[in-house]
Amino acid sequence: MASATDSRYGQKESSDQNFDYMFKILIIGNSSVGKTSFLFRYADDSFTPAFVSTVGIDFKVKTIYRNDKRIKLQIWDTAGQERYRTITTAYYRGAMGFILMYDITNEESFNAVQDWSTQIKTYSWDNAQVLLVGNKCDMEDERVVSSEKGRQLAEHLGFEFFEASAKDNINVKQTFERLVDIICEKMSESLDTADPAVTGAKQGPQLTDQQAPPAPGLCLLGPASPPPTPPLPPPKNRSVHPSLPPPPAPSPSSWGSRGGFCC
Ligand SMILES: Nc1nc2c(ncn2[C@@H]2O[C@H](COP(=O)(O)OP(=O)(O)O)[C@@H](O)[C@H]2O)c(=O)[nH]1
Ligand SMILES: [Mg+2]
Q1: Which keywords, in A-to-Z order, does the entry hold (predicted)?
Q2: Ligand 1 site: residues with CB under 6 angstroms?
Q3: Into how many domains does the chain fold?
Q4: Ion ligand 2 residue ranges (Cβ < 5 Å)
Q5: Which of 1, 162, 203, 223 is most buried, by CB atoms within 10 Å?
Q6: Is the pLDDT of residue 174 over 60?
Q7: What is the CATH number of the domain that holds 168?
Q8: pLDDT tens-digit series, residues 49-69
Q9: What's the domain range around 65?
Q10: Residue 176 phi/psi, 5° resolution?
Q11: Pocket perturbation via mutation, ligand 1, pick of 28, 51, 77 by most ligand atoms within 8 A of CB
Q12: What CA dihedral angle connects 84, 86, 190 and 14, to 10 degrees?
């Protein structure tokens, strides 16, 4: 069980202030679909077959380069159980992106996707980007949810779609990078169409313009500009438990997207 002293969540990168943008991403979905494993595969390139139930919510930080920009990802791993829903949904508000995960060997987790999507629509910014991920695609013999069903549901919900395996490291990096790319694309579009009176610019600023002010809550510029809205993470190496206050954040406009990558 993750805890305040859980060394699996070491945050050595979290205090690094050297970045151009910071994106907050949440991984959500039913318990045991592989959310924690997916995050550990991506952040640490590690995998453990043991199931260690996540308590509340926790995060890892990973910094990547996209379009010559240093992007710091604050990736929040949530507990899937209903009893943590109040805490975890409180974290939806500042998120720019969601990885909504089900397990291709577990029909119930797939049937729950619609509910998770409703949670996103209810509690997140309208413009948050979502990828639907069918995890455990290494378990082909036990598959009960076809790729086609996954793709159709993603299309219906307006999300892009990936099948992946945290265990075999299939489409893990690709999922995060695609999510970052669509966040960047939509952020750039939003800034292009931003009201000059609000942004103070004659033309909408580009993603690559480091001096340009971001649309509220869409991105966090590096050291020169402190975060406008999303919350600071909790102290190092700790989970967020029911007694701790949730973070806030407001919301702008609305977007959507589609596509598909299977195992
Ligand atoms: N075969 C396989 N097992 C996985 C995969 N991802 C996670 N698991 C296993 O599924 C169980 C639940 O994983 P976990 O990451 O704790 O799920 P969470 O509750 O969604 O965070 C663990 O036993 C993992 O080892 C995967 O891609 N393939
Ligand atoms: Mg977990």
Answers
A1: Cell membrane, GTP-binding, Lipoprotein, Membrane, Methylation, Nucleotide-binding, Prenylation, Protein transport, Transport
A2: 31-37, 49-52, 54, 80, 135-136, 138-139, 165-167
A3: 1
A4: 35-36, 54
A5: 162
A6: yes
A7: 3.40.50.300
A8: 887 887 777 899 999 999 889
A9: 21-190
A10: -65, -40
A11: 51
A12: -50
